[in-house]
TrEMBL record:
Gene3D superfamilies: glutathione-dependent formaldehyde- activating enzyme (gfa). Residues 107-127, 186-212 are annotated as: Disordered. The lineage of its organism: Eukaryota, Fungi, Dikarya, Ascomycota, Pezizomycotina. Residues 188-203 have a biased composition (Gly residues). This is CENP-V/GFA domain-containing protein.
Length: 343
């Protein structure tokens, strides 16, 4: 197995960011899968990173592995307070996190929304297998306290489609960006401590660079993520440097992960065949902030909308409830407009 030397930002720095987009050229690098050594084009993944870029991830498109996990239904689609527990257990094993491609949705928006929570597990598409993942908003108390804001945005992604990025220094300017499968028990290290450990040269330093992933993960000063239990059986990960929210997952569904949608890189590389300035490039303008080529935003409900005022009283509770209500109204109107319905 390939071993990482240091986790670094996966987007090459530019000399003058004021005059050009920080968008990696597809020929600048390819990712290498740590397990197999196979390469992945940088334009075939969605880059995710926190503000300080200590946490650097990529997301791949839905594939056969995306259909393997089981998960109960999400409150984002079916309100827990008013839906039977038996139904929420998803005994039909619906792969609700896999959604139609953007092209499919635009071609037949109404059909795509007919089955609530829908998303066919059939990965065949008419536009290059660009299926997406369901994404939504949450106003529950634990998310609010965890992120420090009234609204948390989540994308529901199988763990098999999430990779931790590590940069491995090569000769000259030829660096390799290694993709490690997301395994919460053995995360690659990252941050300044590992960068300092890389300096100094010599055989001893080279040996240090090749320490195992497990050894790196065991060191809290170099671990790429920190985890805490927000309640029994529930885990949240965040960047230990800048504090960015990264993941939510629990013991009931360990293989479908909530990924903080705010980590998505706003400077998405243009699809193959388009230039950065192309007006059809979904990586520019407002579509980039929502990563709509990758995420299908649920507009019929805000998750745990009923909990927006939970745990507080007075002005805070009133404003929190109003923000959640306004968000739900706005999302609903946006969804109806996109479907061609009267707003």
């Amino acid at each position: 197995m390939l071993q990482p030397e240091v986790l670094e930002d996966t987007i090459p720095a530019t000399a003058d960011t004021s005059s050009q987009s920080i968008v990696p050229d597809q020929h600048d690098f390819q990712y290498t899968l740590a397990d197999s050594g196979d390469t992945v084009d940088s334009r075939d993944v969605l880059n995710l990173h926190c503000l300080c870029r200590r946490v650097s991830l990529v997301m791949t498109r839905p594939d056969a592995s995306s259909t393997l996990p089981w998960s109960p239904h999400s409150d984002c689609v079916y309100p827990y307070h008013s839906t039977s527990r038996d139904f929420l257990q998803n005994r039909s094993d619906e792969k609700w996190w896999i959604r139609p491609s953007l092209a499919e949705e635009e071609e037949d928006e109404m059909a795509a929304k007919t089955t609530k929570g829908g998303g066919s597990s059939d990965l065949s598409t008419t536009d290059g297998s660009k299926k997406r993942y369901l994404a939504g908003t949450c106003t529950c108390r634990s998310c609010r306290l965890g992120c420090g804001f009234e609204i948390q945005t989540w994308a529901f992604v199988p763990r098999s489609n999430i990779f931790v990025v590590a940069r491995q220094r090569g000769r000259g300017d030829h660096d390799r960006r290694i993709l490690f499968p997301l395994d919460f028990s053995s995360l690659p290290g990252g941050g300044e401590d590992m960068q300092r450990g890389r300096q100094g040269g010599g055989q001893e330093n080279n040996e240090n660079r090749n320490e195992s992933v497990l050894q790196q993960a065991a060191n809290p000063t170099t671990a790429v993520l920190k985890t805490y239990n927000s309640q029994a059986g529930v885990f949240r990960e965040f960047c230990p440097t800048c504090g960015a929210t990264v993941f939510w997952h629990n013991e009931e569904r360990p293989d479908v992960i909530d990924v903080s949608a705010g980590l998505a890189d706003l400077c998405l590389p243009p699809p193959k065949g388009l230039s950065v300035g192309d007006e059809n490039h979904s990586g520019s303008a407002s579509a980039a902030a929502r990563a709509e080529d990758w995420l299908d935003w649920w507009t019929e409900r805000v998750s745990f909308f009923e909990h927006a005022a939970a745990g507080r009283t007075g002005t805070g509770a009133t404003l929190g409830a109003k923000i959640a209500a306004d968000l739900q109204d706005g999302l609903g109107a946006w969804g109806r407009e996109r479907r061609g319905e009267s707003v």
